[in-house]
């Protein structure tokens, strides 16, 4: 049997991987890549992958691209799993880690998916790539498309993209289109354009993106000495990354590389929380939020395209989803920066904010090993950081003025 197959998540229909596809031709649900364990084990055994340095392509035997294809890469993955002893002590947690994926080449986890997605776009012979984005996907896609020499068109919600992300998409040479509407409307337009205009979509509905992103879970296991954490906290916007992490943990377990998996908690901002609402109400269908709003603009999404995948993933892991307020997010962002030196954008602090709320409510064991995923770098959104920090004090260039200021500041 082939090592990889692309199948519908709902009806299981197999689809041709050598043609661009995002949804099942029979029932319209999303597609996913399925991995054959026996073939994969054989390839891994021959590869000696364990001794390679940490990176997305360390795991290339588990990534569905032709072994002969040269990846379009800027050294993505291999991000730090930071042991947070100070924050751990502050909140009484024994083993707390932050997976800082904001240290990827363009400053977010999107690069893991994009190196694979763009490599696939080249294999498929695509000339133009596109996405709708709250910012990070557009920055990442623009960078990788530039490196691959592909034309890039990104659609962003007007006025709601953080400054750093906008600057990136523009610098990397994408055609940046500002859409009157929110992310959900921009994504609808992108999906239509893929058919009508022949552009390859690199949103997380693209199953190859998920294949790159699942490597973050492999890395976490490897960084913890071959043992997954007991709990994993992760922000949920469109639901692609949480599904990708679960896929990674589940694959590692079924390949015999680990013998357990974490309980995954998906964290959403209160004003954009349709997935968390499903868990709170026990509903089996998503009810989209019409006017999503949150300070964490990266996850300002009301109709997550991957909701079925992420709900399934969170349930299979034994976890669920919850909300945090914008205030919770900004406080978490500040303590991560102040106490551990980890500067995350608001969405990249949402997971830790979710953990703090779970701790308050006594629903997580403080002696367990816990990983919070920090998805994007704080420099992406300088406006929020400056607006929520103490302004610099201005003094004359004299020693007594500095001395006076220091004495006054305690
Ligand atoms: N964190 C950050 C920093 C993000 O940029 C995103 C998504 C998420 C979390 C949520 O991940 O959508 O896979 O559940 N950003 C997308 C974008 C939507 O366009 O950049 P998800």
Structure description:
There is one protein chain. This protein has 410 residues and is α/β, with parallel strands linked by helices. It has helices spanning 37-47, 85-91, 110-123, 136-148, 163-171, 183-197, 207-213, 215-223, 240-254, 274-281, 307-316, 326-340, 346-360, 382-387, 399-408, and strands spanning 4-8, 14-15, 31-35, 81-83, 95-100, 128-132, 151-157, 175-179, 200-201, 231-235, 263-269, 320-324, 369-374. The strands form 3 sheets. Strands 4-5-13-10-11-12 form a 6-stranded mixed β-sheet, sandwiched between helices. The longest helix has 15 residues, at 183-197. Ligand F0G is lined by residues 108, 110, 133-137, 204, 235-242, 298-299, 345, 347-348, 375-376.
Describe the secondary structure blueprint for this structure.
Layout: E1 4-8, E2 14-15, E3 31-35, H1 37-47, E4 81-83, H2 85-91, E5 95-100, H3 110-123, E6 128-132, H4 136-148, E7 151-157, H5 163-171, E8 175-179, H6 183-197, E9 200-201, H7 207-213, H8 215-223, E10 231-235, H9 240-254, E11 263-269, H10 274-281, H11 307-316, E12 320-324, H12 326-340, H13 346-360, E13 369-374, H14 382-387, H15 399-408
Parallel strand pairs: 5-13, 6-7, 6-9, 7-8, 10-11, 10-13, 11-12
Antiparallel strand pairs: 1-2, 1-3, 4-5
Helix pairs in contact: 3-4, 3-7, 4-5, 7-9, 8-9, 9-11, 12-13
Bound molecules: ligand F0G.
The site of ligand F0G has 23 residues, from helix 4, helix 9 and helix 13.
């Amino acid at each position: 049997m082939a090592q990889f197959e692309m199948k519908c998540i709902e009806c299981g229909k197999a689809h041709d991987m050598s043609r661009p596809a995002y949804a099942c031709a029979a029932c319209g649900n999303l597609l996913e890549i399925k991995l054959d364990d026996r073939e994969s084990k054989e390839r891994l055994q021959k590869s000696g992958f364990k001794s390679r340095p940490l990176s997305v392509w360390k795991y290339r035997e588990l990534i569905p691209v032709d072994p002969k294809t040269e990846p379009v890469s800027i050294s993505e993955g291999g991000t730090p799993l930071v042991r947070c002893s100070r924050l751990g002590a502050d909140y009484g947690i024994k083993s707390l880690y932050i997976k800082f994926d904001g240290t990827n080449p363009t400053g977010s986890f999107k690069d893991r998916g994009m190196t694979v997605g763009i490599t696939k776009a080249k294999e498929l012979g695509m000339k133009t790539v596109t996405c709708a984005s709250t910012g990070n996907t557009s920055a990442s896609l623009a960078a990788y498309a530039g490196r691959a020499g592909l034309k890039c068109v990104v659609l962003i919600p007007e006025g709601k993209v953080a400054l750093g992300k906008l600057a990136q998409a523009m610098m990397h040479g994408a055609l940046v289109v500002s859409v009157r509407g929110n992310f959900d409307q921009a994504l609808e337009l992108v999906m239509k354009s893929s058919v009508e205009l022949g552009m390859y979509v690199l949103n997380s509905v693209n199953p190859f993106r998920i294949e790159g992103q699942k490597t973050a879970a492999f890395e976490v296991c490897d960084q913890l000495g071959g043992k997954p954490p007991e709990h994993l906290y992760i922000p949920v916007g469109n639901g692609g990354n949480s599904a990708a992490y679960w896929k990674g943990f589940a694959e590692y377990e079924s390949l015999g590389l680990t013998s357990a998996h974490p309980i995954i908690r998906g964290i959403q901002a209160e004003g954009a929380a349709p997935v968390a609402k499903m868990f709170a109400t026990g509903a089996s269908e998503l009810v989209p939020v019409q006017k999503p709003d949150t300070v964490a603009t990266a996850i300002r999404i009301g109709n997550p395209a991957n909701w079925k995948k992420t709900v399934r993933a969170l349930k299979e892991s034994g976890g669920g989803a919850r909300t945090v307020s914008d205030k919770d997010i900004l406080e978490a962002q500040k303590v991560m920066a102040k106490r551990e030196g980890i500067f995350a954008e608001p969405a990249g602090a949402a997971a830790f904010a979710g953990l703090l709320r779970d701790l308050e409510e006594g629903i997580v064991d403080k002696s367990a090993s816990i990983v919070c995923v920090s998805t994007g770098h704080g420099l992406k959104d300088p406006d929020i950081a400056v607006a929520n920090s103490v302004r610099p004090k201005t003094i004359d260039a004299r020693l007594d003025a500095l001395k006076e200021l220091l004495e006054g500041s305690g």
